Each structure stands twice: as structure tokens, then as C-alpha cells.
Amino acid sequence: MRGSEKLWEIAHQWLPAEDYDPAWLAEFQRQVELIVAGKQDRSVALRDLILLGVANRGGRHPSHEEDWSDPLCIARIKCAINLQVSMIYNARSYRDAMDKDIRDEWPCFELVGMNKHADLSLWHDKWKQAGGKLRQGRMIAGKPSSIWSKLSDFGLPHPPFSLLDDVIVEEVAREEAVSLGLVKSL
């Protein structure tokens, strides 16, 4: 399965076919592709998807509450859009980071919080359960390590690792990775 197909398969887990018209799902994919290409604003995509969904179900609007059982729940669709866009952006960043020349200089990733308020204690536990070792209290592993896919609720080696993700990866330079005993010097 190609990478982009895997990403769309994950999106359809959050937007199951039995809840949505096939034309709506195709429009969801098109809207996400437009957002990623910089040709569409997320709020416009959300509005268009809600309007199409309302038309498909005879004019019945979504409830104003966050009822995730409603296929047109605004929070549910917004979450799916954000997750899908994030997956596509991060898949591209991951692909670029795996380039041999870049990997020679920056051979490892470190899992860090998106902001200084992120609570990493749950991620430390998940890291250890996935077989990772903390290095000076930090979650660092080689880029091609299987730990990245093991951390992911989606089985992908790059963020987002979960639906409500609050972590990202940063590249670690070879010199630092050598000092931590993760790789050998060139």
C-alpha cells in the first residue's frame, strides 16, 4: 500500500463509509488536498463539507452540541481535517528527513512537546512500553527505528502519533547522537 493510500485509510477510520455518502468522502479528500496545496482555507473546507452533508441528508443540520455520533458534528469533521492535513505534512517532512545526506548529518529524532506546557510523562511511559530507552531523560532514537511506528496509534513512523497529539519530533545532530551512544561517528 502506498503511503498516501495509508493516510486516506486512516482518515476513513474516523469517517466510516457507513456514516457518509461516497461523494461526500471524495469531497473530503479533495478539500484536504486543496488545503495542503495552499488553495483552500480550512474554515471554507469545513463549511463546504457541512453544506454538502446537510444537502445529502435532506436539509437536516448538525446539532450545535459536540455530538460525535452525528456524522456532521463540526468538531468531528474539523478534527478529521486537521488530522489528515497534519499527516500529509508530516509524511512529507519524514520523507525529506530520511534522505541519506540529511540522515548522515541528523541521524536521530527526539520526541518533544509541542509547547513548554506539554506533559510528557504519558509519552515517557509509552516510549518505555514500546521498547525505547530514555537518554538523559529524553526520548531519542534513530530515524529508521521501529519505535516511531510502535508509538503511533496509526502505525506510522511520524507525527501525529495520536488523535489529540501534543508532541512532535525534532532532528538530532550526529555529534549529539554520538555522545549519547546512539550512532557511530563518520
Give short descriptive properties of this protein.
186 residues, alpha+beta, 4-stranded antiparallel β-sheet, 8 helices, 10% strand
- The chain-level structural class is alpha+beta
Based on CA atoms alone, the radius of gyration comes out at 19 Å
Number of strands: 4
Main sheet summary: 4 strands, antiparallel
Estimated helix fraction? 40-55%
Distance between the termini: 34 Å
Tally of separate helices: 8
Report mean pLDDT, rounded to a whole number.
89
Question: How would you describe the shape?
Answer: elongated
- Unreliable segments (pLDDT under 50, ≥5 consecutive)? none
Helices and strands, in order, run as HHHHHEHEEHEH
Task: Summarize this entry quickly.
With 186 residues, the protein is an alpha+beta fold. The chain contains 8 helices and 4 strands; from the N terminus they run αααααβαββαβα.
Topology:
Elements (H helix, E strand, L loop, with lengths): L2 H12 L7 H15 L5 H15 L17 H24 L2 H6 L2 E6 L7 H9 L4 E2 L2 E5 L4 H5 L15 E6 L1 H6 L7
Antiparallel strand pairs: 1-3, 1-4, 2-3
Helix pairs in contact: 1-4, 2-3, 2-4, 3-4
Molecular structure report:
It is built from eight helices and four strands, in the order H-H-H-H-H-E-H-E-E-H-E-H. A hairpin with a 2-residue loop joins strand 2 and strand 3. Helices cover 49% and strands 10% of the residues. It is elongated and about 65 Å long. By secondary structure, the protein is an alpha+beta fold.
